[in-house]
Write a structure and sequence with these properties.
The chain is an alpha+beta fold and about 220 residues long. It contains 5 helices and 9 strands, in the order αββααβββββββαα. The chain starts with a helix and ends in an 8-residue tail after the last helix.
Length: about 220
């Protein structure tokens, strides 16, 4: 049982060590790439430093092929709407049967927030099947693909989030000046009237002749 467990643990590692022997980059919208598909050949063993190996590492191939790959996997499709054109990388892995396994991976190099890749699960490869899923790559994937022949473009920007603004509240009209009170004027008028009447009465009494006296 111990030997069997060790063999099962070694199989994925040995499969990864073989690496890809080639890759074809195609797609990018109607008409595909201006110069046609880009073909890479050579040693794709991880850590070999070749263009093929570096591209596989940047695209998250090992993370999506096997369970023990590096980080970067996403649980579900990202919400970003700005992904840009999609390209397809077809990876070629020589198998023990003398034939080749081909694994397809979708790539969005110019996506807002960083390049995205997707690999379908269940694709046969190296006596196993792909784990698959989404992968959030670093910007070096975009730069590597541009160096290999993709259009030189900057990453897209995320759409601005619309924020609702409350309508401005109209200013209340200014209250009109209160009408001057009427009763003070009436009181002043009455006071003047009484004063005039009183003065006239006093003058009349003074001007009237006194009663005659008999000697």
């Amino acid at each position: 049982m111990l030997v069997l467990a060790l063999l099962l643990a070694v199989v994925p590692t040995a499969a990864q060590a073989k690496g890809a022997s080639g890759a074809t980059i195609s797609g990018g919208g109607p008409g595909g790439l201006p110069g046609g598909p880009i073909n890479l050949k050579g040693d794709g063993e991880p850590g070999s430093g070749t263009n093929l190996a570096n591209l596989a590492q940047a695209a998250g191939v090992w993370a999506l092929l096997f369970e023990d790959g590096p980080g970067g996997e996403l649980a579900s499709a990202p919400a970003t709407a700005n992904r840009g054109p999609r390209y397809t990388i077809t990876w070629i892995f020589p198998n023990g049967a003398g034939t080749e396994d081909k694994v397809r991976q979708s790539v969005w190099p110019y996506a807002a927030g960083g390049p995205l890749t997707f690999m379908a699960s269940g694709q046969p490869v190296l006596d196993a099947t792909t784990k698959g899923g989404w992968y959030q790559a670093a910007d070096n994937l975009r730069q590597s693909l541009i160096a290999l022949g993709l259009p030189s473009r900057e990453p897209l920007t995320a759409p601005a989030t619309a924020t609702a603004t409350a309508p401005a509240t109209p200013a209340a009209p200014a209250a009109p000046d209160p009408a001057p009170a009427v009763w003070p004027r009436v009181a002043v008028g009455l006071a003047l009237l009484f004063a005039v009447a009183g003065g006239a009465l006093v003058l009349r009494r003074r001007s009237s002749p006194g009663a005659a006296t008999t000697p």
